[in-house]
Structure formats: structure tokens, C-alpha cells
Amino acid sequence: MKQRKGLFITSFLVLPVALYAIMVISPFLQAFYYSMTNWTGTNPNYKFVGLDNFKRLFTNELYSVYLIPALKHNAFLLIAMPVIVIALALFFAFMLNVGGRSRGSRIRGVGGSKFYKIVFFFPQVLSVTVVGVLWGAIFRSDEYGFLNSILALVGIPTKPSGWLSDPDIVLLLVMLVMIWSSVGFYLVYFSAAMSSIPTEIYEASMLDGASRVQTFFKVTLPLLFESVQTAWIYLGIIALDAFALVFVMTPEQGGPNHSSEVLGGVMYHYFSSSKAAVACAVGVVLFFFTLTLVMVSLRATRRERVEY
Amino acid sequence: MASETTPNEAGDLTRRSVLKTSAALGLLAVPAVGLLSACASGGDDGGDDVEASGDAKNPFGVDPKKPLEVVIFPGGFGKDYAEKQKTVYNTNFPEAVVTINAIEDLRAELAPRFQGKTPPDILQNEGANKIPHGELIANNQYHDLQPLLDAPTLDDPNVKIKDILYPGVVESGTFKTTDGSSKFFVLKYTYSMWGLWYSQQLFDEKKWTVPTTWAELMTLCAQIKKDGVAPFTYTGVHTYYIRDMFVTLACRHGGTDVIKNIDNLEPDAWNHPSVLAAAEALYSLKKQGFILGGSEGLDHRQSQARWVKQDAAFIPVGGWLENEEKDILKKEFEMRLMAVPPLDGSVNPQAINAGAGEGYAVPADGKNVQGGLEWLRVMLSAKGREAFGADAGTPTVVKGAKEGLPLEDKPGLKSMVGLLESNGDFAFQAMIGDWYPQFGDGIWGPALGELMSNAKNAAEFVEACQKGADAIASDDSIEKQKR
Questions:
Q1: Phi/psi zone of residue A87: left (φ > 0), alpha (ψ -120 to 50 degrees), beta?
Q2: B10 domain-assigned
Q3: Is there a contact between A251 and B293 if contact means CB atoms under 8 Å apart?
Q4: A88-147: per-residue pLDDT in tens?
């Protein structure tokens, strides 16, 4: 009986598993193979070259000017961006849901919280290209730039080396835009999670005289831990990508002089410059980079579940 | 649509689905890929070999009923001219169905077709997403264009096509093949140059005189700045626009060998004093405050718009500028072109960065190679050139090409043609960026951008370029070109 049930379930799984194998596993394996050939994207007679592409990516000046900065930048984004987004989103979500002054014993957000929720969610509605073009206009480097004209209005001289064209800050600006466009979504996400926390817990903590800060750290955050972990994974994926914004916003799509290069962009660069095999190799590097991080983060955040 | 002329697509799909099914069945990817490559290399190698006969009407033996697929990159000059050239082709072959496809992203649409051996019959391989000629030639995917050179022109059966082209045109389309021989594969169709554009109207109004030396230019720039205009703007977003100023200065200062040595990846080619002098000159522009604020972050259209507004006096762009900005340029603006004026002690002060551009090729696996060659013959005929000149306003590689150009309506074109005539004997081009895009886009461009924005000084610029050139020279996987 049990066996037949298993068979029954498996028969339903055949289609999705086959689709997964065709659409996900097989391209993965093919990318691994292609990364060890000299396939350009157009040559039908490519050869197996072993690990040459990987060696080039890390040691040959022509390739490492792309790969090394990209690895560094993705690592930086991966560490900094999710922390900031989660911190901001949690703070705003707390303020909008339970941060308001309590009248009587009702738990509520700050005044106008419904309006804020909509406003914060706004960037999520825009496509990433629109976001990139919009911020490109804000950071435009001459006096027609939005930011520069505001600075001029208040009498501060324009930044002479531009914004996105300044190698020292271009990556920070890209990250700023990523944060701006992500906070709203996670604010709504955390809000939903917070509303499922029973109000009795808050009321109890209030009766015990807990301050807002104490309520946040001792009640809200521990009960939201699983949501935070999920958010962390999604944001990690966004941080490892960042390709679209870099592509739309930065000079030379990763510049100036490779100072905003990201792995997705490097992959695109090699695909579009007749080095499909090298692009696959970058993909493989990204794969192992991601795999390591996932393993580390799953280990680090493993803890017991709180039931409520 | 492109797919209309690819009857093999069905077979291609089957192959792909077979491959995917086999992978899904649990086969490893390695044998699956082996299967793919076995299929991919199963086709016949190369197209038919075409030779030019003496028949002036149909020297390549075109089958009059065979359809012809023309792929045009519409970025620079649109596709209207090709539609007009089509009527010329159809005059001789009225039954042939000619399809003209304008494709922006050539790589995305054509790489699979080259891989599957179903390319178009004629291809203008240009734009940001072109497939480098060298790559296709290394796979024997272009047909030799020698028969075209040996064929009679459409206008005069006694004149061969090779005799009507400007000198250097055949050289610039000649590439080394896999067997080591050199063949003419790419017909570059336009003849144009790079330089500094300025507005005669603005110069007259401010009573500035056009400088003839770098020193005069510097004095003028100080004056321009005093008059409240920025002397220079440029696009820092697309750094290859800066190449011209650098190569012209270096070539004028030290002679064409400086550029040839760089192209040939000679050791220490970048450590030549003329290279350093050119780099120092460019570095000094921003240092002296001669550059419009924020230029390093402007794209080409933004910087050109500022120049058209006369916020800046000079802008380095190629010959297409007048066409590209025709919507905002007024005729009174009187745009003029000059080459970057020579540094003190220049040995080759008349050099201009000019040459053939816009490469057209006949894919070897096309279904109508003869038709492809005939199409090029049509393009080089008087009527074909007239169609191009009227639409694109750019000279072609056929000698005396300014005939039929709308010179009186286009002051910029007129000034460029004048320069091409007076300095044409000193024309040169740097090839390194085209031959080795990894160097041009990955090393040279970024270094030029940083030189202009003063993030790198001249010595650092030279060092970065020499290091990159050495890396190309020592990489065995890169096919080396020589000039």
C-alpha cells in the first residue's frame, strides 16, 4: 500500500522533475563543459582546453582586470547591501506597525502609516531599467544633473568629477539605488510577518513596562527571525546579480576603469565579445562563489524555531 | 522576418530537442555536447567557390531566380539606402526576391545562424554587438572577396572594381586565414575620418582663429575659457571616442611607425617618447580646466548636445556627427572639422585619422554567395553609391566619391571631404583596438578615460597600455595580425 502511494506521488513528479532537469540541470552541466572549451559562440568546431579559461581569468592581465574587481564588488555588495536593507526595512516596518504611541492598550503604527507603506513600496513597481535611467538622470555629471542642479541652487559647487564617473564612489551609488529600490518590498514583507505575531505578546511586554527598543529587540526580531533569513537569501541573490543597474547606470557598463564591474556584467561582456567559453567559466566561478556563501550562511544562521 | 529564409530551422529544432531529451534521460552533459558538436560539424565545409568571369552582366553566375537575404546594421545609416540599392539589383535580376533585414543586435540573432550554417547572403557586420570579423574568418565563415575585385564594374565593363577603390581599402579588409595566407574578406564601404568638430558661427562671433599647432590651440583654449565657454567636451562613457585625439597626436609627432609598432605589439612600442608626449598633452587639458565640467560622465548624445548648444568649442567625434545630430543642428551653426593640431616637433604634421569603415561581408555558408558578391558590385556602382550618398551623407571608398554627395546642404560633410582631399595622402588608422578588442575595450579605453579625467597621469597610462599589449603578445590563444 505504502509502495503504491509512493508510485502514485512519483507519477505526479515526473513532469516537474523532467522539466527541471531539462531547463535547469542540463544547462548547468553544459555550462560546466563549455567553460573548458574554446567555444566562441559561433565556431562549430571548438576544442576541449581543460582549465585554461579559469587560469586566464585569474592570472592573465587582459581577463583579470574584469574578474578580480567583479569578485570584490559582488562580495562587498553581498555583505553590505542585505544588512542595510534589512535594518532599514525592519526599522520602518516596526515603526509603521507597532512603533506608534499606544493609546489605551492598542498596538498601532505611527500616524499616516498606510500612506508611508504605499510610498515605500513605490520603487518596487518600477522596472529596474526605469530605476537605472531615473537615477542616471539624478546623478548626471554635468550641471543638467538633478543632484547637481539642487546643489547649485543651495550654492554648493558641483562635484567636478561627476557622480557615477567617479571611480571611488560609483559602486556605493549603485548600492544606494539597490537599497532604495529594495527597502519598500521588504518593509511590506516584514509588515505582513509582524501582523501575524499575536498582539497579546506585545500587550504583555507593554504591561511589563518594555520600551519600544526593548520590544523590538526582545519580541519582534526573534519572532521574525525566519522572515529575516528568507529576506537575507533573496537580497543575497540580488547582490550577486546587480547586473541590470550597472549596465544601465555606469560609464562603459562597469566603469570607469572597471570600478563598478560585477560578475553578471563580466559574463555578459564575454558572451558579447566572442568568448562564450570564458563567459561560461565566469558562470562557473559565480556558481562556486554562491555555493560557498550559501553553505556558510546556512551553517551560521541555523537555530531553533520559535513556535507561536 | 529572418526565419523566413532559414528552412533548416526545423532540423535544428529537432537536433536541439534530441539533445535536451538525452540530457533529461540522465545522460551526462559531456556526451550530449559531443553529440551537438558532431551534428554541428556534419554540414558541408565552406560554400561554393565563385570566380569572376568576363561576363559584364553577370560575372559571378548569379542564379536569377534565387532569393537573396541582405542583413543591414541600421545604427549608423538606416536601411533606406539598401532598399534603393535593391531596385538596382532587381534591374538585372527582376525575378530574384531580395529581403532586407535591419538587425541591431547582430550577435544575438546571427551567432546561432552562423553556428547552424544558415547565415544571410550578405552581412553588414557593424555596431556594438557585431561579431568580430577575425572570429568568423578563423572559422572559415566568410567567403573570399577576390572575385569581386577582379570583376568589371556595373557601369563600365572595361574597368575592374579593384581599380576604382581608394588605396588602403583592400588592405584594411584583408585578414590572415587559418592556413596562414592573407585574403580580402571584408569590403569596407564608407570613407571617413575622425577629428575635432567646431562651429564656425561661434568662432566668428567670438573672433577666435582656428589653431594650426597644439601650442596655438592651448593659447586659444585659454581665450575660450576667458570668454565663458568650455574649450572641450567629450564622452567619457564611450571611451573609444577619445582614441582619435591620442593616435593623431602620437602619429603626427613620431610618424606612422609609432602606430604601426603599437599595432604589431612590438615590445616597448608604448614607451616611445611620442606616445608619452601625446598622453601628456591630453592629461593637460583637464589640468588646465579646459574641459566642460562633468564630461567624463556624459554619453555621446549628451556631450554632443552640449556642443551643439555651444557650451563647448571642440568635440572629438567621427564623420557621422552631422548625420547623427541633424535634428538639432542648424545650418547657420556651420560645423567644421579639423584634425587635432600637431605638437611641437611633429615629424608628420599632416597625418589624419582617416580610412575605410562599415564592413560588408559575404558569409561562406550563405545560400546565394554569387548573389552576395553581386550585391556588393551593386553597392559600388554609380547608382548604388548615389542611393547611399543621398541618404547617409557619407563618402564611399570609390575614388572621387564626393560626386553625388549633398555637399551644399551639409557644411560638416563639405569640410570633411575637403580635409580628405587635402590630407588624404597622409591618412592612417590604428588597428590595435579592432584587432584585439580585449585590449581596446578592457585596457586602452578605460586608461584613456582615466587619463582624460586625470585619475591616471601620462606615465601611468603608458604603463597600463604597455602591460596590456604585452599580455596580448604573450597569449597564444589570440591570433596575431601584422601590418
A1: alpha
A2: no
A3: no
A4: 999 988 888 876 655 555 666 777 777 888 888 888 888 999 999 999 999 998 888 899
Answer yes or no: do B220 and B323 share one domain.
Answer: yes
- B445 vs B456: CA distance, rounded Å: 13
Q: Tell me: do B241 and B377 sit in the same domain.
A: no
Q: Quote the longest CA-to-CA distance of chain A.
A: 81
Q: Are residues B284 and B391 in the same domain?
A: no
Neighbours of B483 (CB within 10 A): 13
Parallel/antiparallel/unpaired status of strands B68-72 and B122-124: parallel
* CB atoms A33 and B30 under 8 Å: yes
B336 vs B417: CA distance, rounded Å? 11
Residues B331 and B227 in one domain: yes
Residue span of the structural domain in which B276 resides:
194-353+427-473
ipTM: 0.82
Residue B215 in domain: yes
Domain contains B36: no
- B434, part of any domain: yes
Which residues in chain B are closer than 8 Å to A252, comparing Cβ atoms?
Answer: 237-239, 441, 445-446, 449
A246-261 residue pLDDT tens: 999 998 888 898 999 9
Contact residues on chain A for B449, CB-CB shorter than 8 A: 251-252, 255-257
Q: What CATH number does the domain containing B187 carry? A: 3.40.190.10
Cα–Cα distance list, B181 to B92, B174, B177, B463 (Å): 35, 10, 6, 34
Closest C-alpha to B8, from B441, B268, B366: B366
Task: Provide the domain count of chain B.
Answer: 2
Nearest to B122 by CA among B149, B151, B148: B148
Distance CA B445, CA B317 (A): 15
Nearest chain B Cα to A47, which residue? B37
CB < 8 Å to A21, chain B = 23-24, 26
Residue of B nearest to A256 (CA): B446
* CB neighbour list of residue A46: distance below 8 Å, 6 or more residues apart: A37, A38, A39, A40, A277, B37
Question: B237 φ, ψ to 5°?
Answer: -80, -35
Question: Are residues B258 and B211 located together in one domain of the fold?
Answer: yes
Asked if the bond preceding B395 is cis, omega within 30° of 0, the reply is no
CA distance B99 to B101: 6
User: Between A and B, how many residue pairs show a Cβ–Cβ distance under 8 A?
Assistant: 163
Domain A24-129+168-300 in CATH 1.10.3720.10: yes
pLDDT band at A41 (very low <50, low <70, confident <90, very high): confident
Query: Same domain, yes or no, for B136 and B239?
Result: no
List all residues 6 or more positions away from A106 whose beta carbon is below 8 Å from its beta carbon: none
For B16-66, give the secondary structure using H, E and C: HHHHHHHHHCCCCHHHHHHHHHHHHCCCCCCCCCCCCCCCCCCCCCCCCCC
pLDDT band at A198 (very low <50, low <70, confident <90, very high): confident
Rounded to a whole number of angstroms, the distance from the CA of B435 to the nearest CA of chain A is 12
Give the CA count within 13 Å in the CB-facing half-sphere of B215: 3
Half-sphere exposure of B394 toward its Cβ, with a 13 Å CA cutoff? Answer: 27
Q: Which of residues 199-258 of A touch B (CB under 8 A)?
A: 251-252, 255-258
User: How do strand B335-338 and strand B427-428 relate by DSSP bridges?
Assistant: unpaired
Question: Within this chain, do residues B180 and B198 fall inside the same structural domain, yes or no?
Answer: no
Nearest to B449 among A33, A43, A256 (CB): A256
Pair B442, B465: CB distance under 8 Å: no
Statement to judge: residues B142 and B198 lie in one domain: no
Digit-coded pLDDT (tens) for B370-418: 999 999 999 999 889 888 888 777 888 888 767 778 788 889 989 999 9
**So where are chain A's domains?**
24-129+168-300
Q: How far apart are CA B51 and CA B445, in angstroms?
A: 41
